[in-house]
Amino acid sequence: MSTGQRSGGTLSAQDAVDSNSPGQAGSRFLGSLYARNIRAVFARGLKATWGTNWSIMISGFVEPVLYLIAMGIGLGALIGTVTGPGGEQISYAAYIAPALLAVSAMNGAVYDSTMNVFFKLNYAKLYEGMLATSLGPLDVALGEILLALLRGAMYATGFTAVMAAMGLVTSPVALLMIPAAVVVAFGFASFGMAITSYMKTFQQLDWVNFVMLPMFLFSATFYPLSVYPQAVQWIIQALPLWHGVEMLRQISAGAFSIATAGHLLYFVVMIAIGLIVTTRRLEALFQK
Amino acid sequence: MSPGTLHYDCRVPQITTSKTPAVRGFQGPVIAASNLTKSYGDFTAVDGISFEVPAGESFGLLGPNGAGKSTTMKMIGGVSRRTSGDLAIMGLDPNTNGPEVRAHLGVVPQQDNLDEELRVRDNLLAYGRYFGLPKSYLQPKADELLEFAQLTDKAKARVDDLSGGMKRRLTIARSLISDPQILLLDEPTTGLDPQARHILWDRLFRLKEAGVTLILTTHYMDEAEQLCDRLIVVDKGTIMAEGSPSALIRTHSSREVVELRFGSERNTTVAAELEGIGERIETLPDRVLIYANDGEAALEAVSARGLRPITSLVRRSSLEDVFLRLTGRSLVD
Amino acid sequence: MTEQRTHAVLGLRSPLTPEQTASRARRFGAVYYAEHWLRRMRGYGVTVLVTAVGTPLVYLFGMGIGLASLVDTGTNAAFETGNGNSVSYLMFVAPALLATAAIMVSSEENTYTVMSGFKWRRTYYGPNASPLSSGQLVDGHVLGLGVRLLITCGAYFAFLLLFGAAGNPATAWLMIFTAILGGLAFGLPLMAYSASITEDRGQFAMVQRFIVMPLFLFSGTFFPLDTLPMIIRWIGWISPLWHATELGRLFSYGLAEPAALTVVHVAYLLVLAAGGWLLARRTFTRRLGK
User: Fold this and answer.
1) What phi and psi values does residue A202 have, to the nearest 5 degrees?
2) Three-state SS string across A32-64, please?
3) Which helix (H) or strand (E) holds A23?
4) Is C131 helix (H, G, I), strand (E, B) or coil?
5) CA distances from C131 to C29, C50, C141 (A)
6) B26 in contact with chain C, both atoms CB, cutoff 8 A
7) pLDDT at position B8 over 70
8) Cross-chain Cβ contact C217/A60 below 8 Å
9) A253 by DSSP, 3-state: which?
10) Higher pLDDT, B310 or C81
11) Residues C167 and C64: beta-carbon distance below 8 Å
């Protein structure tokens, strides 16, 4: 992260020379990093996705729905009601639903920005081809992330619809969960892509799962944070998923506070850091 | 007489072991194929070919892509069942004695299938274990083969980090781990740069000298000329001709060839004006070939008719010309 | 030409004749391939180890302790064993978590690993040209997988003991083997399917979403199967995970069930494993041309 910021000042002059489209590129904002052509990357991705595996894309929202049904109905029968963010008693299904939405936003974004990007980076050599054109690394990064976000938005909408069908959406404000889920996805996608750019083997991708699994289980998804000792709570509160879960839970219950803004800020910072590192890395990898 | 030795320009090493090839007691040909056929549905990849390979011979299958060479190799290698006909390797039928047949063979497939999850040397050890060979043999053998393949300093490298030529040499080293007397090589040098090919040819030539029976497919005539004692020219699943490279050239071509280029527009029209020069004239889209025993004389005859080609070249006949003669098509397109 | 002056000499002769090699391969070929399978695993040994240790820790803390605090306070009736006794939620989920771990490992080793052996990495074609038969590659794979499952489930069981979640120590260790059986019952049919894939169209993502996930969630893993409405309870009945879990509960805390049902659990798992194995052998033989 710090490397991205450190080298930030020295880029424009040198990169304008390296770029395949010099001319005005050097004088423009972000120079050769950005060719204002995210659309090309986005359109290619859209075509590729819908051409080959649209069924997978559509089915992606099934997973959180299954969790909601299994845990909400099966486990809910055992647990009964729990205390919601506003202090009121809510059903267990209503408690976990927004958390599962945050988790699915995370999962989709992480899959798209790790597995998928890793493959394109190392096997399909897709980015190498793209960066040999006038596209800059930021175009590629944003284009790919945007694609992940479109998918995330679709899933979030689908999931919210299921929630509504189960009677778990109780106010129009709760619909704000959809854009909020996209923000969560944005954070994970840009950060995930940054991390993937450092990976060399498929095995290293397993480490992503090692981080995701405990984060999924511990981030107040299925039970409140209060079951943990204070020290453990701090660690969890430092991780992004907890912020996503809390933010969506507050929106779902309509219980906004200063904390809601704090969670949002967390993701804004995460997005920024992820984008900076990804751009620097793509540049270092392909525009030597 | 092997034409390979004529062209071979490097110091020929003396390999110490002289070998008695073949299974103890087995006297017949190492490979005997009779009316060998392989069909996939309606498509017949190999259409009733017959040949025999005696022990110690270097035998080639020359033909363009899709001629049925690889399919034939797979049947010999005991990894593809024939549709009909007979096939014996060391007198054994691969359909019923697959493990025994494969125990006799070292196989270099067309596409490298090295184990990328293992390091270079471990690839050799792991492969040797499939033959049930003990570690006490495999360890020194692996080192010997790495030396042979000029990969000693890469022993601990990842397979991914090797160049194409190195991977190919490692595949050949791997095929030799069980000390086989028969080596199947499917397009051993396709896709390699000229220098990598020469290194490989050198290694293969040493094996041939050590008495290993080589069966190789290729679509490079220079490769066939360098390595093969005898070869069959294969096209569309059938054998077009058989013999040593020099005999094939003698039978199916003239001693020399004149290659003339008049520009792609004019080649066809000029061909008519060349009528009568040399033994035979072949018109290709990009050039005109005149087959003649004296190339220089033929070239003079062309000038005498007032024709001025953009480029002209006199060369010796090659297997390419044989193939062109037999099939009317180029070998490498 | 960059010729080297030192000439390598292939002096070392094989201690075995081809006939001896072939007869060894016929007898021990599967073991030879399992050896390779495990050697390959050493390459990502750290991953295997961290999975084997990390997964149980995370699940036991998350589900067994975290979720238990909610469930045990929420339900006054603890988990019935069927014969008048009851057990804690931790004890209830432990056998399910163990069986889940086996199935996760098994699905990991039987999807991309198998498909890429035919397609991208083509790792099956090397040994295929050796004296080994196609069927032996499958057998060796199953043998190697068995070893990995044993390591994973053994480690998991040690953690169950540590968390006091293993129940009766005299019989609870048998859970290791019922979990392995569950892993094979799920993994081997999947192996046969993976071996039949010639083009990657994201089938494994679909398997994950429409098979693994529902089985994981609706197999009486986190709550007894009979808390679910009848219309989805059948998912548990066909799920290898449910059968393996119920067997585990039997050995762990003596879940009371009719003996016939126990027989059904074992028989169902055996049939799936054996059927998948045979099918995989057939598919391998077909694709490898032997």
Assistant:
1) -60, -35
2) HHCCCCHHHHHHHHHHHHHHHCHHHHHHCCHHH
3) none
4) coil
5) 8, 36, 16
6) no
7) no
8) no
9) helix
10) B310
11) no
Q: Please calculate the CA angle A175-A181-A185 and round it to the nearest 5 degrees.
A: 160
d(CA B66, CA B333): 12
The two structure tokens encoding residue B64: 């363009």
**Of the candidate ranges B133-137, C118-122, C129-133, the one whose mean pLDDT is the lowest:** C118-122
Closest by Cα among A197, A190, A39 to A128: A197
Sheet containing strand B311-316, strands side by side:
B280-283, B288-292, B256-261, B311-316
- Residue C14 has what DSSP assignment? P
Cα–Cα distance measured from residue C99 to residue C177, given in angstroms and rounded to the nearest whole number: 9
Kindly state whether C46 is in contact with chain B, defined as any CB-CB distance less than 8 angstroms: no
Q: What is the pLDDT of residues A227-236, one digit of tens each?
A: 888 998 999 9
- Is the CB of residue B152 less than 8 Å from the CB of residue B173? no
Q: Which residue of C has its CA nearest to B15?
A: C9
- Tell me whether residues B79 and C9 touch, CB distance under 8 A: no
- Which among B74, B90, B147 has the least Cβ separation from residue C289? B74
B140 at the C interface (CB within 8 A)? yes
Q: Which of A124, A154, A123 is nearest to A46 (CA)?
A: A154
Pairing between β-strand B213-218 and β-strand B31-40 as defined by DSSP bridges: unpaired
pLDDT of the residue at C289 = 81
Q: CB contact, 8 Å: C125 with chain A? A: no
Contacts with A113 (C-beta within 8 Å, 6 or more apart), sequence order: A144, A145, A148, A188, A189, A190, A191, A192, A193, A196
- How many other CB atoms are there within 10 angstroms of residue B191's CB atom? 13
Q: Please report the sign of the dihedral spanned by the C-alpha atoms of residue A135, residue A136, residue A137, residue A140.
A: negative
State the Cα–Cα distance between residues B326 and B307, nearest whole angstrom.
29
Q: Report helix, strand or coil for B86.
A: strand
Both tokens of residue A256?
């906004």
Which token pair is A39?
């659309």
Q: What is the pTM (predicted TM-score) of this model?
A: 0.82
B91: left (phi over 0), alpha (psi -120 to 50) or beta: left
CA–CA separation, A112 and A186 (whole Å): 11
pLDDT (average), residues B281-286: 84
How far does C200 lie from chain A, in Å, by closest CA? 10
> For C150-183, what is each residue's pLDDT tens digit?
999 999 999 999 998 888 889 999 999 999 999 9
Rg (CA), chain C: 22
Q: What is the pLDDT of residues B240-255, one digit of tens each?
A: 999 998 899 888 888 8
Alpha-carbon Rg for chain A in angstroms: 20
Let me know: does C104 contact C58? Beta carbons within 8 Å. Answer: no
Most confidently predicted of B305-309, C21-25, C199-203: C21-25
Nearest to A39 by CA among A122, A132, A134: A134
Which amino acid belongs to residue C26?
A: R
- pLDDT grade for A92, boundaries at 50, 70 and 90: very high
- Name the B residues in 30-69 with CB < 8 Å from any C CB: none
Residues B80, B106: Cα–Cα separation, whole Å: 16
In Å, how far is C237's CA from the nearest CA of chain B?
A: 39
Could you say which of C67, C205, C209 has the minimum Cβ distance to residue A223? C67
The 3-class SS string of C111-175 reads: CHHHHHHHCCCCCCHHHHCCCCCHHHHHHHHHHHHHHHHHHHHHHHHHHHHHCCCCCCHHHHCHH
Rounded CA separation B213/B54 (Å): 8
- pLDDT at position C160: 93
* 8 Å CB contact between B85 and B35: yes
Residue in C with minimal Cα distance to A207: C47
Q: Which residues of A fall below an 8 Å CB-CB distance to C?
A: 52-53, 55-56, 59-60, 62-63, 66-67, 69-71, 73-75, 77-80, 82, 203, 206-207, 210, 213-214, 217-218, 222-224, 227-228
- DSSP states along A211-237: HHHHHHHHSSSSS-GGGS-HHHHHHHH
